Amino acid sequence: MSDLLERLRGRGWRMTSQRRVVAEVLDGDHVHFTADEVHTRAAQRLPEISRATVYNTLGELVALGEVIEVATDGRAKRYDPNAHHPHQHLVCSGCGTVRDVHPARDPLADLPAEERFGFTVSRAEVTYRGLCPSCA
Amino acid sequence: MSDLLERLRGRGWRMTSQRRVVAEVLDGDHVHFTADEVHTRAAQRLPEISRATVYNTLGELVALGEVIEVATDGRAKRYDPNAHHPHQHLVCSGCGTVRDVHPARDPLADLPAEERFGFTVSRAEVTYRGLCPSCA
DNA sequence: ATCCTACGATGGACAGGTTCTAAGTCAAGA
DNA sequence: TCTTGACTTAGAACCTGTCCATCGTAGGAT
User: Fold this and answer.
1) Residues B13 and B74 both lie in one domain
2) What is the SS3 string spanning chain A?
3) Rounded CA gap, B14 and B134, in Å?
4) Which residues span the membrane (chains A, B) (predicted)?
5) What are the pLDDT digits (tens) for A8-23?
6) How many domains does chain B have?
7) A102 in reach of chain B (CB within 8 A)
8) Which pLDDT band, with edges at 50, 70 and 90, does B92 fall under?
9) pTM of this prediction?
């Protein structure tokens, strides 16, 4: 993720301690935090960081394509830093855990033109639902 | 949809005028109202119906599997009474409109066993995103 | 090294969507 | 008809997310 910081600096980002901490929180595999969870974890390192800053930074990361916004349920959005390899999500209906998964085919390819109703379809998000081994 | 009322009564539901009106509002094809829209339309028939009752009833219908909850993008959830015929959703990123669509393949079939991580996967929800003709 | 200043951070107000609570009402079984 | 607990109500509370005015500071200029 430190090359994320490099990329951002290369794009003219002013590198502040707040942005660094948010990027560090999102570092790591299989992480799907809500904005509030990111804020809580960031605040452990930088207690005075504000929620607005976390929202701003996450929004910028999404706009830059470095992070993906995932709406797994009607509740808070989750932020997925694994933006450079296309994937979908497997969600446990019991505990809410999210795993990245890789279907065999691109789901966009399976929506025929006559089922697009004139829409310009740009992406397909698949949420597989079921029970994880612990909850089953 | 009147057999919906029958099914609900059969499951021990107390049949109130409020629940009847909510079920009637959801009747019909290609309907994807928000809770607030359901409330507005229900209130045309039953002016004193409260928002809480609409939310309660919608939640119960979802729990019973009679209605599907569709999470659009940070906006209000939409409620889809077409729960008995498998389909997916096409959402306009501009205005939030939802259309039912039918992909050529069952997306569940495209998640290989080694990508299931021991989960018991029961369903796949696909949300296609793009711009509708008016928003494009 | 210090100064400037535009960009970023802050926190508090605000808004939309949803859930909760306490009190009153009524469907349906006895 | 009576009784009772499930249902409804209004409004407060809550959660997620955005906006605003003000303050602070990163990083280029000097």
Assistant:
1) yes
2) CHHHHHHHHHCCCCCCHHHHHHHHHHCCCCCCEEHHHHHHHHHHHCCCCCHHHHHHHHHHHHHCCCCEEECCCCCCCEEECCCCCCCEEEEECCCCCEEEECCCCCHHHHCCHHHCCCCEEEEEEEEEEEECCCCC
3) 43
4) none
5) 888 889 999 999 999 9
6) 2
7) yes
8) confident
9) 0.86
